[in-house]
Amino acid sequence: MAANHGILIGWNRVIPGKDAEAIALFGEALQFWGRHQQAGTIESFEPVFLTPHGGDLNGFFLIRGEAAKLNQVLASDDYLLLESKASYMLEGHGVIGVVFGDEINRRMGIFQQIISGG
Known about the structure:
This protein is of the alpha+beta class. The chain has helices spanning 19-39, 67-75, 77-89, 101-115, and strands at residues 5-11, 13-14, 44-49, 59-65, 90-91, 94-99. The radius of gyration is 16 Å and the shape is globular.
């Protein structure tokens, strides 16, 4: 069964002078999410780099999983340490909740009720 919830962890670019640390942090993030995938805490994760486009989002991790399990990960000390390092080393670092699949249909149904006056 595919996960209907996820998180997008995005960034713009490395803060000047933090390049080597940011490369090491990327490796830490791969290991962190890989451990959670192996443990079954998340369904999957994928790092994504964007081609130059003039915007302020140049890369992200897309993580899929059950909402409750994702919330547990986001509240863990290990994650908070990783997030704090990212905020220190990356411009435009942000964490955004996302939904997929059946959850899109559920939310569109709610929206349809609103616009129908129900």
